Amino acid sequence: MINIIQDNINEYIQIIKNRANTVQSDVSIVVEKILKDIKVNGDNAVLNYTKKFDSQNITNLKVSKEEIKNAYTKVDDEFVNALKLAKENIKSYHKKQVQNSYITTKNEIVMGQVIRGLETVGIYVPGGTAAYPSSVLMNAIPASVAKVDKLVMVTPPLEDGSINANILVAADIAGVDEIYKVGGAQAVAALAYGTESIPKVDKIVGPGNIYVATAKKMVFGNVDIDMIAGPSEILIISDKNGNEKYIAADLMSQAEHDILASSILVTTSMDLAKKVKSELKNQVQYLSRKEIIEKSLNNFGAIIVVENIDEAIKIANIIAPEHLELMINEPFIYLNEIKNAGSIFLGYYSPEPLGDYFAGPNHVLPTSGTAKFFSPLSVDDFIKKSSYLYYSKNALNKVKEPIIKLADTEGLTAHANSIKVRFDL
């Protein structure tokens, strides 16, 4: 089920870091062809790919208001209420991230910065069996808080040509403006270049399969993107006081995502390590995604036994996991020692699914060690900044000499001349 490691820890870490590279080498060739086709042929190409990969029953790409209204009849009130409660938590958390424009004035000089939301953002949402309404909330709500003008969502249709009702309801609650029935690399291309029906956006966010991730990478520069998401991962740090049932359950909560997912326990107790391994075998028998969980744990799961918590934290900072749980009695003591992690869960009653669905912090997190330099999705991802300045003639006159000196030193005489002509120098 899962290996207990005391030696060769560095070798295991390399396996974890390289697991996202186990993809088909010809993906980029396929994606590049799709991108070019969409760019040239627009809606016709989008429809052709949608019929080829998802549904033959597509005639209109845009989801109608009637379809959204009808989606509410297919979900229960408890689900709707859960979405609304999660929305309020997510919105409240992200409101604290809002930055304000500013202005400074002194001695006939005015300088400042204007912060604006992006005009149009595209949200990619996986469909079919991997339909996650929570991802709709996590991507759309920070954009809304940032005052993005238009939110456009793309998601692949089901075989009958409809969109998953849970996704539609979540999008409506989150404030998405337009929804289109298209997925895969073709959806990314449509958002990046625009078609007759689908507007070109300024930024594309949201998770997807390897074709979606590759397409996002290829269109970057033409549009902005959030990040290239790799397989999911969790690292739990616990001492001898850890609860093996909680730990096993949390490890499997990530393992069920993908056979490439990585679930790691780093503990100071060999006794706890053995109990967790046994508990994994017990609990997995009753879970719907048992086969995926077992493959994930067999290939990329591990229980690492170390001497002390400091050593455990050192390993965590090297791996830089997407999710990190500090399942110890006084987790806040060690919080500042965690340098690299997408999101940190503190104590025995802050399991990773709390963050995935409900608490408020974003669940779109850096993976594959990129938490060393990337951050969770936030309001900052949906804004742009413009600086501005004003100098009076008198103010410019006081600083003309150092500007001319700097320009001449760089050999940019036209820059220097721009200052000189204003003072007949």
UniProtKB/TrEMBL annotation:
Family: Belongs to the histidinol dehydrogenase family.
Gene behind this protein: hisD
Keywords carried by this UniProt record: Amino-acid biosynthesis, Histidine biosynthesis, Metal-binding, NAD, Oxidoreductase, Zinc
Annotated EC: 1.1.1.23
Keyword field contains ATP-binding: no
Active site: E322 (proton acceptor), H323 (proton acceptor)
InterPro entries: Ald_DH/histidinol_DH, Histidinol_DH_CS, Histidinol_DH_monofunct, Hstdl_DH
Protein's organism: Clostridium aestuarii
Keyword DNA damage: no
Source species, domain of life: Bacteria
Annotated protein name in UniProt: Histidinol dehydrogenase
Chain residues that bind Zn(2+): Q254, H257, D356, H415
One Pfam family of this chain: Histidinol_dh
Residue sites binding substrate per the record: S232, Q254, H257, H323, D356, E410, H415
Catalytic activity: L-histidinol + 2 NAD(+) + H2O = L-histidine + 2 NADH + 3 H(+)
